[in-house]
């Protein structure tokens, strides 16, 4: 036999003998009877009887207590199994030595539960709904399309499904495999809910440090508003840290940021000007809105392109169960909507429209503010059209097509028959958008959303002054168009219960068209022009063109460090290519939320935001005629760093307290000090670069349960700017630097179907805004104050009280809503701006007086 084979045979024999010897040892009979002895004492007795050495640490059994062991002639293995059964210890033989060790706990297998949450009445998906398993202290939140995914250990589970405004539902079962569960929630009583609240979890398992504040679309009607028009932007303006412009002028200035630093999204498509009637209303028709979310801190990496905030508005998908219609009419406008299934539970359609009915309420005040006097002719109107097609192609695929088209037209004509002088002002603007969206589930833990979007914003602002007797005229026009085509893909991936990944990328192409016309009587005398008709003059020149390309990629991970500690870490890479220039920027984002005890938690965040588009304004007001320009032409991308630290405390009776502190630094900000010029080469003339900072504290207390509720918020803030070419280079207060801001909203349920609401707002004085004595248009610039004294003079404090009463009535299949209210109850004169005539005198322009309203809505 070969020597090597002999050696192997010998080793095999020895090993077999050793195994047999170990088996014989474990089968050795043991007899032992002890009462109230420790486990180490029992092991010593067994070791003496069997004559085997035992290796273990006595600290293994420090908390085991005393045991009773009585056995007679039983195998050693059986005795050890019985003695160590409750200790988590195991044993093995190593030769003639018995080693006792800690066994590794075997984790039970985990399975994934996924699906959609839907409204039982309509079949629409519910955004930001919660799914919680209290037993495992884990939960999930549905994404923007109602999809959720939750991985839990095998065994008994009890899931709680909840959504603001719906009755919670509980489902209990034994989890032994992956499950797909699509849940429907029944809508709760309409008037029992508050309108706006910070999104929160029903469990310590759900801690989203970047969730923002959620505004359910179905609850907008409860807040008293201007002329009875439900407006999601005005609701957002009632939240702490959000400041309006002048009273009634709309716009949002979030934590010291400018009006162009807010990313306004409609079904994921950027909207460049979300206002109607020169800022009095937003373009969002409440009949078409499903939900909105406002993020004003260091928002997650999936959002980008602006410095200060994100208002993410989602439209309804259309009723998949049955057809229904709704119509409303007030003193200012009317609206109607229809929705229903083209194919039940598979294809739905929603169409909603809105149109002005009368200039009676607001025409005179708007004309006085923006034309400079009571016009002989006035045309003031707007319209909206929303449409959405929702197609469920399969259990894992959905296709959605969204469309919006809206526009405003404003025309004023004044004529003095004695002096033969006349003036005309015309301002037209509008938005158009479309989005084709494909949702796909690759598995229980992987969800994708692919979107192709189109957005178009255009406006034309012209004014004509004509003196027929002297044959003198002045004509000014500025028109612009911004067209945006984009493609993006977003992916949600849940690799484990402790990680929720989101990543994606996108590419967009913007085209800017500009036209500047500035004519006077000299051109008329030279024969260059032969008309003074405003419509014909508007066709004199062609538009100039600019192009810009943006790209981005991002990744963010929501990490569950502990059941009460969550982290959201993200990174965004953004770039822009314009006019031969390219800019690349990294944007890190980090936020965390920690709950010390159930009623108390803290959050912190830090992030860098980059904005590649710039809103250039000559007037301190947010106007439709402000200019959007891409980076390039010596314009760098704007940048900001924001830090936030806050805490929340919840009482048992539904009262919540929150305190947030923030600091924001902004660089590469731009301001126009001259009127725009007439060519691309000189388009940036008069634009200066500077920086700004803002910091403040935001306090809010709110009651969310019971027949009465509401909130009270107080903001202490400061914001300033510094430009080398402005105010002799000295730092000065931002135009909307209001030190103190108080917002109070209270509702009281009077009867089952009636609710009274009150809204009071106070803002300490902003810097005084003085403009030239002429109609307000792009040719208007603020009057410069003394060198080094810019914005040192303050206006009067702004405050206003609004009251509203809602009454619901059902007759058969018809649901009626009656709204009565008063805007600006005590007729406070809150100045929009001030016109200066000379060095010593100016007059104040007020926009919104005491204004009662009535509104009626019917739904079938």
Average pLDDT score: 81
Q: What general form does the structure show? A: elongated
Structure summary, number of beta strands:
52
Could you state the oligomeric state of the chains shown? Answer: single chain
Number of helices: 7
Percent of residues in helices comes to: under 10%
| Major sheet size, sense and barrel closure | 22 strands, antiparallel, barrel
How far do the termini sit from each other? 98 Å
Strand content: over 45%
Instruction: Indicate the structural class.
Output: mainly beta
Low-confidence stretches: 10-21, 190-209, 775-781
Radius of gyration: 34 Å
Description:
This protein is mainly β and 860 residues long. It has 7 helices and 52 strands. It has a 22-stranded antiparallel β-barrel. A 6-stranded mixed sheet has the order 15-16-23-24-19-20. The radius of gyration is 34 Å and the shape is elongated.
How is this structure best summarized?
Helix content is 8%, strand content 56%.
Descriptors for this entry?
860 residues; mainly beta; 8% helix
Spell out the blueprint of helices and strands.
Blueprint: H1 3-26, E1 29-38, H2 39-50, E2 53-55, E3 66-75, H3 76-84, E4 89-94, E5 97-102, E6 110-119, E7 130-133, E8 138-141, E9 147-153, E10 155-162, E11 166-167, E12 169-175, E13 179-180, E14 183-187, E15 197-198, E16 213-216, H4 232-236, E17 242-243, E18 253-254, E19 262-266, E20 269-270, E21 275-276, E22 281-282, E23 289-295, E24 309-315, E25 324-330, E26 333-343, E27 347-356, H5 363-370, E28 377-394, E29 397-416, E30 421-443, E31 446-467, E32 472-496, E33 499-520, H6 521-525, H7 534-537, E34 544-562, E35 565-578, E36 581-597, E37 600-611, E38 613-616, E39 627-630, E40 638-650, E41 655-672, E42 687-703, E43 708-723, E44 732-733, E45 740-751, E46 754-763, E47 770-771, E48 798-811, E49 814-823, E50 831-836, E51 842-846, E52 851-859
Parallel strand pairs: 2-5, 6-13, 6-14, 19-24, 47-50
Antiparallel strand pairs: 1-3, 4-5, 6-9, 7-8, 7-10, 10-12, 11-14, 15-16, 16-23, 17-18, 19-20, 21-22, 23-24, 25-26, 25-52, 26-27, 27-28, 28-29, 29-30, 30-31, 31-32, 32-33, 33-34, 34-35, 35-36, 36-37, 37-40, 38-39, 40-41, 41-42, 42-43, 43-44, 43-45, 45-46, 46-48, 48-49, 49-52, 50-51
């Amino acid at each position: 036999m070969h020597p090597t084979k002999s050696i192997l045979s010998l080793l095999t024999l020895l090993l077999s003998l050793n195994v047999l010897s170990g088996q014989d040892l474990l089968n050795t009979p043991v007899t032992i009877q002890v009462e109230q002895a420790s486990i180490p004492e029992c092991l010593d007795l067994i070791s003496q009887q069997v004559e085997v050495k035992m290796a273990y640490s006595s600290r293994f059994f420090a908390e085991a207590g005393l045991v009773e062991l009585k056995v007679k002639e039983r195998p050693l293995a059986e005795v050890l199994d019985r003695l160590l059964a409750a200790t988590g210890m195991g044993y093995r033989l190593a030769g003639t030595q018995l080693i006792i060790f800690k066994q590794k706990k075997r984790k039970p297998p985990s399975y994934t539960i996924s699906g959609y949450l839907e409204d039982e009445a309509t079949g629409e998906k519910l955004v930001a709904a919660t799914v919680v398993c209290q037993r495992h202290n884990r939960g999930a939140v549905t994404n923007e399309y109602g999809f959720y995914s939750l991985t839990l250990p095998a065994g008994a589970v009890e899931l709680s499904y909840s959504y603001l405004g719906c009755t919670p539902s509980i489902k209990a079962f034994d989890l032994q495999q992956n499950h797909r569960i699509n849940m429907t929630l029944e809508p709760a009583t309409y008037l029992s809910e508050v309108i706006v609240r910070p999104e929160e979890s029903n469990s310590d398992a759900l801690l989203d440090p970047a969730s923002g504040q959620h505004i359910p679309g179905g609850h907008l009607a409860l807040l008293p508003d201007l002329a009875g028009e439900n407006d999601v932007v005005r609701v957002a303006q009632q939240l702490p840290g959000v400041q309006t412009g002048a009273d009634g002028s709309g716009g949002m200035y979030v934590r010291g940021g400018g009006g162009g630093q807010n990313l306004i999204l409609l079904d994921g498509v950027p909207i460049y000007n979300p206002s109607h009637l020169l800022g009095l209303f937003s373009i969002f028709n409440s009949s078409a809105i499903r939900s909105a979310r406002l993020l004003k801190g260091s928002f997650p990496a999936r959002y980008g392109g602006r410095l200060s905030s994100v208002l993410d508005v989602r439209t309804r998908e259309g009723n998949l169960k049955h057809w229904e219609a709704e119509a409303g009419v007030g003193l200012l406008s009317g609206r109607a909507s229809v929705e229903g299934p083209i194919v039940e539970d598979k294809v739905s359609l929603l169409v909603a429209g809105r149109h002005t009915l009368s200039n009676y309420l607001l025409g005179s005040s708007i004309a006085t503010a923006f034309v400079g006097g009571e016009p002989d002719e006035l045309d003031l109107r707007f319209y909206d059209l929303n449409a959405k097609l929702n197609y469920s192609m399969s259990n894992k695929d959905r296709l959605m097509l969204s469309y919006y088209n809206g526009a405003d037209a404003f025309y004023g004509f004044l004529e003095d028959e004695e002096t033969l002088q006349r003036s005309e002002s015309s301002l037209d603007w509008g938005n158009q958008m479309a989005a084709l969206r494909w949702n796909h589930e690759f598995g229980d833990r992987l969800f994708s959303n692919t979107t192709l979007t189109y957005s178009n914003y255009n406006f034309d602002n012209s004014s004509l002054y004509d003196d027929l007797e002297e044959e003198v005229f002045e004509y000014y026009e500025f028109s612009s168009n911004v067209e945006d085509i984009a493609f993006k893909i977003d992916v949600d991936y849940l690799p484990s219960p402790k990680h929720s990944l989101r990543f994606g990328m996108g590419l967009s192409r913007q085209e800017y068209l500009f036209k500047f016309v500035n004519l006077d009587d000299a051109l008329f005398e030279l024969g260059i022009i032969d008309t003074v008709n405003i419509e014909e003059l508007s066709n004199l020149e062609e538009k100039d063109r600019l192009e810009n390309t943006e790209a981005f990629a991002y990744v963010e991970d929501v990490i569950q460090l502990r059941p009460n500690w969550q982290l959201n870490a993200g990174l965004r890479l953004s770039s822009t290519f314009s006019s031969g220039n390219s800019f690349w920027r990294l944007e890190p984002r980090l936020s965390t939320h920690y709950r010390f005890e159930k009623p108390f938690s803290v959050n912190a965040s830090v992030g860098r935001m980059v904005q590649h588009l710039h809103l250039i304004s000559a007037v301190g007001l947010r106007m439709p005629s402000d200019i959007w320009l891409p980076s390039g032409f010596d314009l760098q991308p704007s940048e900001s760093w924001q830090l936030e630290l806050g805490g929340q405390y919840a009482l048992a009776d539904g009262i919540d307290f929150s305190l947030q502190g923030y600091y924001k630094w902004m660089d590469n900000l731009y301001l126009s000090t001259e009127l725009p010029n007439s060519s691309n080469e000189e388009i940036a003339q008069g634009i200066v670069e500077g920086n700004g900072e803002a910091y403040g504290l935001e306090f809010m207390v709110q009651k969310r349960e019971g027949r009465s509720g509401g909130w009270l918020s107080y903001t202490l803030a400061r914001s300033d700017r510094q430009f080398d070419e402005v105010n002799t280079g000295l730092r000065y207060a931002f135009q909307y630097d209001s030190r103190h801001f108080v917002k109070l909203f209270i509702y009281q349920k009077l009867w089952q179907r009636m609710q009274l609401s009150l809204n009071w707002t106070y803002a300490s004085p902003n810097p005084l805004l003085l403009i030239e004595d002429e109609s307000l248009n792009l040719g208007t610039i603020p009057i410069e104050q003394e060198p080094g004294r810019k914005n040192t003079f303050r206006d009067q404090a702004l405050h206003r009280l609004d009251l509203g009463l809602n009454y619901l009535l059902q007759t058969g299949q018809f649901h009626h809503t009656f709204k009565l209210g008063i805007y600006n109850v005590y007729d406070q004169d809150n100045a929009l701006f001030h016109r200066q005539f000379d060095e010593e005198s100016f007059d104040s322009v007020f926009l919104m007086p005491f204004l009662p309203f009535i509104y009626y809505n019917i739904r079938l």
